[in-house]
Each structure stands twice: as C-alpha cells, then as structure tokens.
Amino acid sequence: MRHARRRVVRRVTRLAAVGGLLLGGGMVAQAAMASETPATAARPLASAGTTGDTGAALVAQLGTARTAGSWIGTDGRPVVAVTDSRAAQAVRRAGAEAKVVPHSMNELKSATSTLRSAPRVAGTAWSVDYRTNRVVVQADRTVSASDWSRMTRVATGIGGFVHMERTKGAFTTRLNGAQPILSTGGRCSAGFNVTDGRSDFILTAGHCGPSGSIWFADNQGNQQLGKTVDSAFPGNDFSLVQYNSGKAGDGADVVAIGGGKGVRITGAADPAVGQRVFRSGSTSGLRDGQVSALNATVNYPEGTVTGLIETNVCAEPGDSGGPLFSEGIALGVTSGGSGDCRTGGTTFFQPVTKAMAALNVRLLVSAQNAGGAQGAAPSAAPSAAGSQGGAAPSAASPGSSAPVTGTTQGQTLLAKLTDTRNVGPGLLVIAGSLIALVATRYIRAEQDRKAYQRYYSATWG
Predict the structure, then answer these.
(1) How many angstroms separate the CA atoms of 144 and 418, rounded?
(2) CA distance 97 to 91
(3) Given this model, what pLDDT does residue 368 score?
(4) I need a labelling partner for 101 at 20 to 30 A (CA). Which of 81, 216, 347, 377 fits?
C-alpha cells in the first residue's frame, strides 16, 4: 500500500498548475507576474544593513559562549542577550541595548541537540526564544499523552530553561491534500522568481511536489509552464520549477498581495527576530506579523525540517510556497504551521537565502532595480534586517507597490490566473484544465483516487 500511495502521489503532483494553490473558492495570490517593468537581470544576496545586522555582528564578535542571540526591540534598536557585564558594556558602546541572561547560546543549542537526538515525535516543534532566554518546545493536538510525558521528561533532564507548551491545531505543511484531487490535486503557490544565469525558475516549497512534477499554463492541460527540477523535503523545504520557455518574462520581480496590487521585490536577506514581516497567500491573502525565532525545527507528519523562520503570521491550507517579505526584501517561502487566520497561529518559512545558496540561483529583479540595463553588473540589495533604518518594527511596510498585470495584448494566461480580480475566470480555466487532465493519462483509476485521499487524510491535521 505504501508503494501504491507513492505512485498515486507522483501522479497527482502532475496536476500541479501555475503559481498558486487553490483552496475551495480561493485563488492564486502570487507567481511570476506580468507588468510593465523592464527586462530582468540577476541580483545577488543582500549586503549588510544597519539594525538587525548590528546585533548579529556583535554576537559574532563576542562569541556564542558570551551571547544568546539578538533581536529588534520595540523602538527599532538592536538588543543583544549577553552573559556577563563586560560583554554588556561592549554592546552598549556599540550603540545597542544589552540584556544580561543566565544561559549562553552554546547552552541553548546543546538543549536543541538533545531534543533532536530523542525519539522523533510528529506534531512537535522547538526553537530558541532569544527574548526569554529559553528553548520553547511546542506540541500540537495530535501528540499523545504518553509522547507528551516522554518529551517532558527529556526537557526536565535538560534544565528549567526548556519550556513545554501545548498549541491549538496541528503542525502541517500548508498543502491542502485533503481536498478531492479533481479540484485541487496538489497545487501550490509560487514564491519568487530566480535564475541560474542560463534559465529562470520559480522558487517554491519542496513539499509541493517531488522532482518531475509538471505545472501547466493553458486550459487544455497541454502547454507546460514548467517542471520541478530540484526538490528538497523533508530536511529542508524548497524546490525549483523550471520555466518551459526558459524565461520568467516581464514582471518577474513582483508578487501579488490581492486586489490587483503587487509588491516589487528588490533583494533577499535573512530576517531578524522581532522584525515585522508580510506573507501573501492564495487562501488568506496578505497577512503580517513578527519573526519570533530563527533556526526552528518542526516535526511534520511527513518528516523533520530544520533551519526554519518561525513567525506569528497566520496562514491556512492553500498558502504553501507563498512569499515572505518585508520592505521589498525576499525572506522566505511558506512551509507550514498550525492555527488559522481566525484564531491566529504559528507559521514557519524556509529561508530564501539558504534555499538559493543550496540551489545556486539568484533572485530575478527588474533592470531598473538592479542599477542599470540588462546585463549590467548587479548591485547589492539592502538588508532586510537593516531596511527599517532603526524604525520600530510596526513602521515596516511590505515594500513599494507595483502593478500585477500589463497590457491586455501582452498579458499571459499566467498573469490572468495570478490576478486576484479574475477569480471567476481563473477558476473556469483551472476547472477546464482538470477536466482535460481527467481525460488523459494523469488520473487513471478510482482506486488510485481513493488511495490518494486516504494518504492525505492520514497526514492532514
């Protein structure tokens, strides 16, 4: 049965279509957009900034035995956790705020290593909370009482700075696999457009589908938009969808945020704890919140993913792969989480810097943002952590606005699908694509459909 399910999942991923995951009546909220921007050029990762990077630089200078992380305070100033008074003086001399704490980063990381070496429990997650100087272990509603007791014993053995808490809902990837395959069948949202200098790709979540998954761009299911050529999940959670034409086209630097509006992406960087961030998703639209932890570990039912960005931004099934950004800086792609946008929750993101480094690709931005005409030497982007320039996190914005559609003549089907004003026509296109696919080789038997539904019913929270 396990092998049968794998065959079914591989077949179903071929139903994946362009740039977004459909949930019920939800529509695609982001992808490679068409707009009236110049030709694209590549840009490297962001350079150092001023606010979050000041804290990171101090941590690097003082070392992990004397510090325990840094974050952006409510006033926009960097705060550094230190373990002794001399380190505190050094931080203050650098213009940052110092907070003396009892446990160093070495101790905190040792605690997370112990947790990782314990028997794996699906439905759990942990991260280092810099601001409280604790390791926070979360367990969702699927964790049994016996597993909860066992993990509590492990935490108690580590020390009192390991905090255990129950969460509402369940930690799941935000792919809505519980829906019937004839309506949603493995669709995912696109994150950002990237390039390796020879070909262009969509960077999205790895759990959206393995290598070989086909993405379509026409209402007959014949014209391929692209194919997943590299995928990492679990462990990491990123994948590359290579454009069939080799090029992303105009508007590759824009992500939609709903209502026909978009945000222009100008670079990529790592976020800082306490930073205000924004996420765009096909189910829940544009949402915002703060980064609560970095390098988080999540034990999804499908496997463990490490090195994630933890936030209090809400997300719902259908938001998988969508972009996380702030001030026009790409930060991550949606991996998974718990809760929803009615009651709130926790959402984890794959850092784009780590994904792009592993895949050896760079962001696509407009030639104007790259500092010249296409082919000009790319310039460095501002740091996401430093882009606030010392302002309070509440003052941060998604970034500069940009149109998500171009002229009628030049507008591609992909642009129409990703324009949230065209929900009705887009759904008809998707329905047409799925009906065509039913008539072809991609869905073969009722037994396979039932096996697919049973598989995702077992893994969906």
Answers:
(1) 41
(2) 7
(3) 55
(4) 347
Distance CA(243)–CA(29), nearest Å, equals 19
pLDDT the model gives residue 244:
83
Q: Which residues pair with 287 in a beta bridge?
A: 279
Reported residue count of the chain is 461
Give SS3 for 353: helix
Buried b (16+ CB within 10 A) or exposed e, 212-243: ebbbbbbbebeeebbbbebbbbbebbbbbbbb
47 burial level (CB within 10 Å; 0-12, 13-18, 19+) = middle
In percent, how much of the chain has pLDDT > 90? 47
- pLDDT the model gives residue 222: 54
Scored b (16 or more CB within 10 A) or e, 276-315 reads: bbbbbbbbbbbbbbbbbbbebbbbbbbeebebbbbbbbbb
Any idea which residue has 């991996």 for tokens? 335
Backbone angles phi, psi at 182, to 5 degrees: -75, -10
Question: How many angstroms separate the CA atoms of 460 and 177, rounded?
Answer: 7
Show the tokens assigned to 201: 């790709």
Quick one: which of 167, 390, 399, 138 has its CA closest to 275?
A: 390
Residue 445, judged by CB atoms within 10 A of its CB (0-12, 13-18, 19+), counts as: exposed
| Predicted confidence (pLDDT) at residue 18 exceeds the cutoff of 90 | no
Two tokens at 289?
């919140």
- Helices 52-62 and 85-93, packing angle to 10 deg: 140
**C-alpha to C-alpha distance for 417 and 434, rounded to whole angstroms:** 15
- How does pLDDT run across 22-47, given as a tens digit for each residue? 222 222 333 333 222 333 334 333 33
Residue with tokens 């938001």: 319
Neighbouring C-beta atoms of residue 10, cutoff 10 Å:
13
- Tell me the chain's radius of gyration from C-alpha atoms: 22
What are the pLDDT digits (tens) for 262-306? Answer: 899 999 999 999 999 999 887 788 999 999 999 999 999 999 999
Residues catalogued as catalytic: 207, 237, 320
With a CB cutoff of 8 Å and minimum separation 6, the contacts of 63 are none
Looking up tokens 């002229």 gives 407
SS (H, E, C) 123-142: CEEEEEECCCCEEEEEECCC
206, containing H or E segment: none
- How buried is 439 (Cβ within 10 angstroms: 0-12 exposed, 13-18 middle, 19+ buried)? exposed
Termini Cα distance of the chain:
21
Amino acid letter, 377:
A
Q: Which two tokens stand for residue 127?
A: 């991260």
Beta bridge partners of 231: 239
Q: Mean of the pLDDT values across residues 187-210?
A: 86
